[in-house]
Amino acid sequence: MSIYPLITPSLHPDNIKHLQGYDEETASYVHIAAQALSEAYEGINDIHKAREASKRNPVWNEAAQLIQTDDFANKKLLKITKSIDSANANLSKSIAHIEKELTTPLTAGANDPVANEIRSHVKNMNNSKRRKFIEEAQQKKDLQTLQALLGAPSYLSGLTDIEVQHYTRQLHEIQNPALAKRLKVMKNAATLLGERGGLVFKEVEKAVGKPSHVIQKLRKAKNEAEQAFILNDQRVDL
To answer: b/e map of 55-90 (b: 16 or more CB within 10 Å)?
Structure first.
């Protein structure tokens, strides 16, 4: 996509490509975020072009140019905000779905014949040794041990519920690295949209050429002038 010098580079859709976790495998999962930024970037550029075009109209003075540009900008801004809101909603929904998958309690292997012995062995360890034992089991991808510990009530292994949730999440990520990677890039995309979305309003105002309160004053003066003509026409008709 083109680069427009009048618009902040923070809204360029290529920012999505620089997110941690972004590559050919994950690109499709954050494409909606890139589309939202593209809508914003191109839309704001259209406002800049409309402002320049308004200056070439010999009938419009500066006030008329600003009002016409602002009318155009408001329509563009509506499309932009809808696109960003839609992208955020879709990302949030997908993130919540993956989070649920990665935090699903384990059940397989908890009733394995040696599961009770594994839990009893770990329960007799102190906290430091227990953590080290579990971390080593994760590194070795020792599913028999991990499922025995995490698929049963926490107290049977001397763990807390929070520890079980933590290690369960880590095990799911070990077993589903692609899913964990997808979640990371989607979260990063959602964060970026949240951080950059607010820039849209400043950039639209800059593209119009004057702050909104100035435009409102111009609109008020225009409406009052037009109303005066309407009243005078009514008197003439009488």
So the answer is: eeeeeeeebebbbbbbebbeebbeebbebbeebbee
What's the pLDDT tens digit per position in 63-79? 999 999 999 999 999 99
Closest C-alpha to 32, from 77, 92, 72, 109: 92
CB 75 within 8 A of CB 207: no
pTM of this structure: 0.84
pLDDT at 238 over 90: no
Place of tokens 């991808």: 141
Residues 99 and 119 in one domain: no
Six-digit token pair at 232? 């005078």
User: Which residue type is seen at 196?
Assistant: R
Q: Number of folded domains in the chain?
A: 2
Q: Are 16 and 22 in contact (CB under 8 A)?
A: yes
Report the pLDDT value the prediction gives residue 190, as an integer from 0 to 100. Answer: 97
CA distance 133 to 216: 67
Residue that is written with structure tokens 């999440």 in the block: 169
Considering the domain architecture, whether residues 13 and 99 belong to the same structural domain is answered as yes
Q: Which domain does 168 fall in, by range?
A: 115-178
Decide if pLDDT at 110 tops 90.
Answer: no
Interacting residues of 223 by C-beta distance below 8 A, sequence separation 6+: none
pLDDT at 233: 57
